[in-house]
């Protein structure tokens, strides 16, 4: 996905990778800070409440983000037994990263809309013709891809399978007797990601949901 932009506009690619790196960092930082607010300082003690990308980025997750359009960072450590109150804390921690990605998607969407209103030709050539002309074209490409991928990351994390955030949201809503089963499913995380990547390659239900969201995002901003 993003790797195609490297051939199209290398400068836009570099700027976008920087923006998305910090999007992943902010996602994980949101989890850690929410946990801290609900009584768990594990992330703080382990130095994960930081904007330093090296503390958060996962090599495999970053490569998948570049080539498949979805990825992940190293999960912030959270000791759920220390969350007080437990269920609201678990829900807040689980939603924090998703909310941050949605807020970033909205922010970049507003920026792209403003560019469309003030620099319509530059936006057209950047997004329709694939030619970034001047600063407005470059900014249009970055805002479009950054907003789109933040939206995809948010929706991707809502899928209720471990270890995605959606599974933790589910845990905060179902009876406690089901929690050990959901925790045990974490051991199959690698297979979960492989199935999701396969779904996206084969245009399965998750892929169709993300495609629908992308079209809606594009239409809402540019029509």
Automatic annotation (TrEMBL):
Keywords: Cell membrane, Hydrolase, Membrane, Metal-binding, Metalloprotease, Protease, Transmembrane, Transmembrane helix, Zinc. The chain crosses the membrane at residues 12-39, 59-78, 90-115, 135-159. This is Site-2 protease family protein. PANTHER family: ZINC METALLOPROTEASE MJ0611-RELATED, ZINC METALLOPROTEASE YWHC-RELATED. One of its GO terms (molecular function) is metal ion binding. One of its GO terms (cellular component) is plasma membrane. One of its GO terms (biological process) is proteolysis. Its cofactor is Zn(2+). It comes from Oceanithermus profundus. Residues 17-192 form the Peptidase M50 domain.
